[in-house]
Amino acid sequence: MLSFLLRRLLTFVPTFIGVTVVSFVFIRLLPGDPILLLAGERGVGEERYAELIKQFGFDQPIWRQYIDYLGGVLQGDLGTSFVTKKPVVTEFFALFPATVELSLCAIIVAVVLGIPAGVIAAVNRGKFFDQALMTTALVGYSMPIFWWALLLIIVFSSGLGWTPVSGRISFMYFFDNVTGFMLIDSLLSGQKGAFLSAVRHLILPTIVLATIPLAIIARQTRSAMLEVLGEDYVRTARAKGLSPLRVNGQHALRNAMIPVITVIGLSVGTLMAGAILTETIFSWPGIGKWMVDSIFRRDYQVVQGGLLMIASIIMIVNLTVDVLYGWINPKIRKG
Amino acid sequence: MTETSTNSPETTPAPPGPLREFWSYFRENRGAVVGMYIFAAFFIVALIAPLLAPYTPHEQFRDHLLQPPFWQEGGSTKFLLGTDPLGRDMLSRLLFGARFSFFIGVIVVSIASFFGVIIGVIAGFAPKWADTLIMRLMDIILSFPSLLLALVLVAILGPSLINAMIAIALVLQPHFVRLTRAAVLSERTKDYVTAGRVAGAGRLRTMFVTVLPNCLAPIIVQAALSFSSAILDAAALGFLGMGAQPPTPEWGTMLAESREFILRAWWVVTMPGLCILIAVLAINLMGDGLRDALDPKLKRS
Amino acid sequence: MSLLEIKNLTVEFRTANGPFRAVDSVDMTVEAGDLRAIVGESGSGKSVSMLAMMGLLPWTANITADKMEFDGQDLLKMSARDRRKIIGKDVSMIFQEPMSSLNPCYTVGRQIKEVLRQHTPLTRSERQARAVELMDQVGIPDPAKRLSAFPHQLSGGMSQRVMIAMALACKPKLLIADEPTTALDVTIQAQILDLLIDLQKTEGMALILITHDMGVVAETVDRVSVQYAGQRVEEQEVNALFTDPHHPYTAALLAALPERATGKHLPTIAGVVPGQFDRPKGCLFSPRCAFADDLCHSTQPGKASADLGEALCHHPLKNGQPVSEEPA
Question: A14 — contact with chain B (CB < 8 Å)?
């Protein structure tokens, strides 16, 4: 297990360095003078220009610039936003909990609904439930989620008036930001109705963001289960006189989970891509909306920093999934 | 799909040809066949959109702004699916939109699969260090969420449909590399490859004539699935204002343009999205069928 | 009352190309403590009939029988829930591929104790003690330690021993061993067979050995039934079967044994087992039978008398020569 972990870490380092190179090169790839680009449309005076050149180290050779950049990154310095003048890292961590809250809710919904659905479909293979479920899953998988979000808004927000259209909580409530998770903070505040308001704001974005991972997990669980159900050890389990719940839910599912775990891990990337659209549509103040806004504001320091942060998080999640994979699959654990 | 016919010698009595065998498996999956028909219809619409469309996609009827579809109060058969906020005929714009989506799919998949397959084959045959280098590079690209990377690339290149397609192709291409490499690695140790080498096949011939045709099945499936992701991603970029620019009748861009009228005119929002969904769904149905028919592991005996 | 009584069992699988009959009107009677074998080529339906009895066939299988009773309980009318109280406890089964028959995710100990938890009121510590005892009984060295091993850490022979331990856990009245040695090394095969025979004697249970190996049969069991293309073609005591086979198929099988070959070349049975689409109209063995005549090609034979091994043949053999007795 330890050597397995070390080996995985060993591939993590070069990939991380590669990601820093990509985000480093990014600003330098932009056509035109980087300083003028960074300054945006307001432009800069000559004196300020020279100052900025020095500040960003553009007078240094390129490899030197990269070393400095990497040094900064390793010390947690991702530059400063041109628009807000705040460090990128500070902004990132202020908005990050909102995205995490939304993504966690979405992935929980996807896992809690997707795995049982896939198992039931596999066990009832070829029957009506299976076909209906798999058709639904394929529709979900093919869904343009930005459109799906608009449809849900038409029906549930403007049509039925059940859910709000944007934001994380009603303006009526105001309380301290303790954890950054609105669900927890609203409870901590003790204000009446605050928690309910937070939940109502969360529902539609969660549905939208969960749609594709849910479809993927259901499909993957079904096909993994189908494969496993034909295995000899499942027959052995049935030959022991175990109940279908134990055979399918324990012997088969445990083995079928091995590929599913990988898919769940990979869907973190899908979630981040989905968060970009979902947060933009629902004005959810998270990382996705921040990135899109920064791209439109041409706040390239933020784009650069955000890109690196998001890629790092995805890589860390993938690493965690690999470790989890080893834990659930004894062949790797002991081997 | 005819990959195996090129290197299987004429034998008698002839077993069912690979194409026929493929078709008999494909036909078993009803969804896949339906998907294929829809896809064919989609292709034909894209091809002859100017003949089908009652108007050009840009013609504005100033007296008919936001007119509902014909079956609704206030609609008329002059504009079967209503008009958009600028008085353009929805039906005509949707028909022309099929052209763009199809075009996007074809170009993106061609670019991504062409480079992806070549790089993948090279990685499969390269010495270990070069293989590792290529795969690390692909890992790096895959570490970014695809849509975000595409967004940033478009921000660098400037928002336009062409740049969006380049960005999406770049983002999809690592999947082809990985798949091709995996297939090549499992094929290259087989006896027929060794036999080809012994017979004097050169390196390039071994790579592209002997091995590659036998790796095509997963690549074809990936191409089908990439076709649908390309349409989805392009529409998403269009929706975010970073893809095709107005007044191009691209479905995602149409959605973005009419977003503010969502509460007043349901059809301007519903129709383009429905088109995207149906196109993507049809391709995915077909992709599932392709995978079942081409993947020998899942074939029933 | 017999321990297991099966009358006229037929199993058909629904396939894309229509029904496929894997077991065709098979009868079988097993008494308590019996030691018998079912012999046949692969695809002759020998495991399918036993799997059908255990209720382990996939949903595509269509099972019909006139009678299927175990220990006086009617397996046909029984609910799945009631059947699960019997299988794993009173009837258990071990399989051909020991390596893949154990769940790779759980330790050996857990998989053995699971049976005990399902069918016995033993406490946790009693289950542990019983598991150690079982492991010891099947000849696994250092049993307590091996309980925490994962299946991939065991060899094929060890895995099969674990499977046997698992099957014996609740002291079954009937153990079905489905080609238990086929996947193992030759040296291990004999050990596992000896173990099974030993256990059959000491535990006093009935054992059905499913195999394609006539050689194995000769050395081990008391009674043999021979299956061909889903039908039971003959059943006899082992010695009688070897000295005087009544069905031409049995005779041909025996003649093909290397130990019995007399000439320079090993005799073979020409042709192949009929498949789904080329089932002959008459006797299923007629296309490959040296003694077949027009009757054999046109009409399905019935069972011969008991002293002719109930051979499913128009012209059962006696001392190697066909007799013209019409089947009873």
Answer: yes
